[in-house]
Amino acid sequence: MVKAIEIKNLKKTYQKGKANEVDALKCINLNINKGEFIAITGPSGCGKSTLLHSIGCLDGFDEGLYYLNGEDVHSLTNKQLAKIRNKTIGFVLQEHGLLADRLCWENVAIPLQISERNKKTIEGKSKAILMKFGLDEIMNKPPSQISVGQKQRVSIARALACDPDIILCDEPTGSLDSKNAMKIIETLKELNKLGKTIIIVTHNPNIAKECERVLILDEGRFVT
Ligand SMILES: Nc1ncnc2c1ncn2[C@@H]1O[C@H](COP(=O)(O)OP(=O)(O)O)[C@@H](O)[C@H]1O
Ligand SMILES: [Mg+2]
To answer: Most buried among 178, 195, 212, 219, using CB within 10 Å?
Structure first.
């Protein structure tokens, strides 16, 4: 079966050739099957976000091979990469990143607007996703009027708007108390049961232990 993610000898250096050069990823090998639920942990600065950004095609890398759903990422055009970022991968960050001047459903609508023109369709889809998350009551509110836990759930709804197969979460519970953090994990677990591949970067051992597989990164390499 085609793997969701297959990475061989991936390397990434920031500020290459300068005095402040950093080898953020040294030699990453990673195979992830479709439908896996994986945690990546490791000390601050070990390369977790850099790796997640490379996996999410938000950033390139300097050396190595990366096959996403069997496709060689290196060979893709910018247009194809943009489509992957919109349709194949959903990204959830520590800070929800919701736009303050839009209602919650309008925030969820943003990724849908790239491929859909009909305003009613976009509104219907956005609200349906929020309802699935039990967020009916807040969909017509601006982010300033909802709790931090709700904001993070709206940001997950936004990441899922275009129904991606792969969900990448960079410390998604880092700003939440333990009760809200667990709610996020329950939401991610349900999505995983529906077949989504999930990778979550976390410092929190309670969250890591909820995942099927835990990978530890240290100074740009996986610790075995
Ligand atoms: N844009 C950048 N320019 C230069 N160095 C960076 C940049 N982003 C990250 N780094 C460095 O790369 C290393 C890995 O960073 P990062 O992936 O953010 O780690 P983590 O998410 O595990 O805390 C760190 O040493 C960090 O300082
Ligand atoms: Mg980070």
So the answer is: 219
